[in-house]
Amino acid sequence: RFCRPLVLASLPTMATGEEITPALQDSWGDFWLFRFFVNAAGYASIVVPGFLLIQYFKRRNYLETGRGICFPVIKSCVFGSEVKSVHQDDGSLPPRAEPTESSTARQVFKLLFCAAGLQASYLTWGVLQERVMTRTYGATETDPGEKFKDSQFLVFMNRILAFTVAGLYCALTKQPRHGAPMYKYSFASLSNILSSWCQYEALKYISFPTQVLAKASKVIPVMMMGKLVSRKSYEYWEYLTAALISVGVSMFLLSSAPNRTVSTVTTFSGIVLLAGYIIFDSFTSNWQDALFTYKMSPVQMMFGVNVFSCLFTVGSLLEQGALLESLRFMARHSEFTAHAVLLSVCSACGQLFIFYTINQFGAAVFTIIMTLRQAFAILLSCLIYGHTVTVVGGLGIAVVFMALFLRVYARSRMKKRSKKLPPGETPVQKV
After folding, report:
1. What does the longest C-alpha to C-alpha distance in the chain come to?
2. What is the pLDDT of residue 332?
3. Residue 237: partners with Cβ closer than 8 Å, 6 or more residues away
4. pLDDT at 63
5. For the chain, which has fewer Cβ within 10 Å, the N-terminal or C-terminal residue?
6. Do the beta carbons of residue 186 and residue 82 sit within 8 Å?
7. 22-32: b or e for each residue (b if 16 or more CB lie within 10 Å)?
8. Would you tell me how many other CB atoms lie within 10 Å of the CB of residue 71?
9. What b-and-e string marks burial along 397-414, b requiring 16 or more CB atoms within 10 Å of the CB?
10. 3-state DSSP assignment of residue 146
11. Bridge partners, 137 (sequence order)
12. Which residues cross the membrane (predicted)?
């Protein structure tokens, strides 16, 4: 909070020798790259001392020499209580509950319940996300109103409710004994915060349909990184569907509508923020996969990640003085308060529906439901907020989703075939 005016004042005055105006300070403060570095500095003020403390306890061999009432807490945070589970095929997913004596009608009801819960949670979440980040509050005939600008506060609201829901669920249900060092959740938490922040900020520069399609095309950079870094092998249908996704996204982005407004034009900043979202989100999922080698449930993972997410975001908001500003904005605009709370409820409920759907029906069914959700989200955004899509852009969207469904179908066929392979053979690794 105190360094920001100094930084803003020094850069222009060193170049021109003139005093900086308040309007210029506001424009610098609203620039996404500046806010990104300010937020990162706030996270570093928590990460760096924590890293030094962890190294101190490890060098002192605290696990053998430590005593006192703080010993259990430090042991849980720094060392953990159990070794990794080396015989775990896919710890990232909970074991799927196979229907034993349930009727077909009951299974259909469960599937409809999961689909309706996921669609309701994430479609509402998407509509509210675009409303909060692109529209003004308190507008009247004489007053244009004001926009909410602090994406980090929205991330904090989402994480504090997810932390509460996961904590209550862990307290009320039987969970595996937790063994992972708590500090390891901080890596996934930090990347998760940054990916969510990039996602919110990108809506200031690109349309929501563009953001949805960019998320759908995330498989392309994942395959590229897997090929270059891990030397993974892919099937022909994976290359085919990745090419189709690339063509479909290109058709949508390059199509132009005569009445497209400035707010829906894809800008360079929006592309950079989307790239940041994809990079941080990819790291989050890979790090969580590594953490699942410890014995834990998905809800325990949700709880651990959100503990650090709350710590990082509230610390950074307090250091910047943005927490009080955001709370004052909520006090001025009750509509924004309702939107922010509902946004957080949808995010937390959506995560629980994800765990339940994968547990009951597997990842393939979940992927189909979420792919349909992306298509519905684009349609809703165009209907509610008036985004214009040309014929070529519509064909591009159709190509993307056709490729996504083709991937789901081909992957399910490959899994069935891999079960019939001889014991010495292993299937090709997939993304």
Report:
1. 80
2. 93
3. 406, 407, 410
4. 80
5. N
6. no
7. eeeeeebeeeb
8. 13
9. bebbbebbbebbebbbee
10. strand
11. 146
12. 33-57, 108-128, 153-172, 236-255, 261-280, 301-318, 338-356, 363-386, 392-410
Picking from 325, 272, 276, 355, the residue whose alpha carbon sits closest to that of residue 152 is 325
Instruction: For the beta carbon of residue 229, count every other beta carbon within 10 angstroms.
Output: 8
pLDDT of residue 287: 84
Q: Residue ranges of the alpha helices (H) in 99-218?
A: 104-134, 151-172, 185-202, 208-216
* Spatial CA neighbour of 292 closest among 301, 283, 304: 301
Measured distance CA(360)–CA(263) in Å, rounded: 41
Residue 61, number of CB atoms within 10 A of its CB: 9
The reported pLDDT for the residue numbered 327 is 94
Give dist(CA 238, CA 223) in Å, integer.
Answer: 9
The residues that bridge with 146 in the sheet, in sequence order, are 137
Which token pair is 334?
A: 């009750």
| Tokens read off for 249 | 């996204």
Query: Residue 206's closest CA among 157, 249, 146?
Result: 249
Residues 6 or more apart whose CB falls under 8 angstroms from that of 361 comprise 96, 110, 111, 114
In the chain, which residues have pLDDT < 70?
1-30, 82-102, 216-232, 253-266, 363-364, 367, 415-431
d(CA 151, CA 337): 14
Secondary structure (3-state) at 137: strand
Structure confidence at residue 366 (pLDDT): 74
Q: What share of the chain is helix, strand, coil (3-state, %, to 5)?
A: 75, 0, 25
**What is the spatial distance between Cα 295 and Cα 424, in angstroms, rounded to a whole number?**
28
The backbone region for 174, taken as left when phi is positive above 0, alpha when psi lies in -120 to 50, beta otherwise, is beta
Q: Using alpha carbons, select from 95, 116, 46 the residue that is nearest to residue 318.
A: 46
User: What does the pLDDT read at residue 47?
Assistant: 94
Distance CA 316, CA 403 (A): 41
- The domain segmentation of the chain, as residue ranges, is 32-79, 104-136+149-416
Distance, CA of 220 to chain centre: 18
Q: What pTM was estimated for this model as a whole?
A: 0.75
